[in-house]
Amino acid sequence: MKEKVFLAGAAGAVGAVLTPLLVESGYEVYGTTRHLERMDGMREAGAHPVLVDVFDRETLANAIECIAPSIVIHQLTDLPPGLDPKRMSDATVRNARIRGEGTANLVSAARAAGCERIVAQSIAWAYAPGATPHAESQPLDLGTEGARAVTVVGVAALERWVLSINESGGIGTVLRYGNLYGPGTGRDAPQGASPLHVEAAAWAALLAVQRSTGGVFNVAENGAEVTSEKAKRELGWRPDMRLQQHVAQ
């Protein structure tokens, strides 16, 4: 019997790449979307589409209970097409809600269904000012203000929820992704202080499912403001990984 994966955000930039990687690796993938028109594309990628909003706690909990996955992957974001700067202010607030309330709903539903293996997307640019490259042990910038504070507080809430399952013997893994670029991200070339190709991000999630024993991992290209040596060492991840490569075993 195939191991079941509940992929929240399967139609997003990372989720759309991750779905075929998981399917090719032998997992039975149940992918969520809020948009009916995206369901056919998810089926074509080999996933079972699940139409659900992460803020609908009851429907989400019922879906996860019925599916009974052994792994939940959180790749949910709410960003405008092309990362339109005119719409990013509102997107920052929506993303913070997903990271806080949405993650709480997802983790609570997973645990109620008996699933204690969770991999979640976080970000690599929420560290407090300090020596670079930033390592996972360095603190988040919780003393910041304004729009950045909204983002960092949301990130802290997401990570707290995901890592809480480690206290009861589960495996909660947080992937602090760098600045994504590539298909579906709105950026064709590397940008930001810690760039990361979307396909390399998807590979990190697959490897976390297969190899992580829990904790936080920076995931960004060489020369970034963060060090990804832990992900390379413990997960076998490399920043040049792409979709066309053979699936890891």
From TrEMBL:
<protein>
    <submittedName>
        <fullName>NAD(P)-dependent oxidoreductase</fullName>
    </submittedName>
</protein>
<dbReference type="GO" id="GO:0005737">
    <property type="term" value="C:cytoplasm"/>
</dbReference>
<dbReference type="GO" id="GO:0004029">
    <property type="term" value="F:aldehyde dehydrogenase (NAD+) activity"/>
</dbReference>
<dbReference type="InterPro" id="IPR036291">
    <property type="entry name" value="NAD(P)-bd_dom_sf"/>
</dbReference>
<dbReference type="InterPro" id="IPR001509">
    <property type="entry name" value="Epimerase_deHydtase"/>
</dbReference>
<dbReference type="Pfam" id="PF01370">
    <property type="entry name" value="Epimerase"/>
</dbReference>
<dbReference type="InterPro" id="IPR051783">
    <property type="entry name" value="NAD(P)-dependent_oxidoreduct"/>
</dbReference>
<feature type="domain" description="NAD-dependent epimerase/dehydratase">
    <location>
        <begin position="5"/>
        <end position="198"/>
    </location>
</feature>
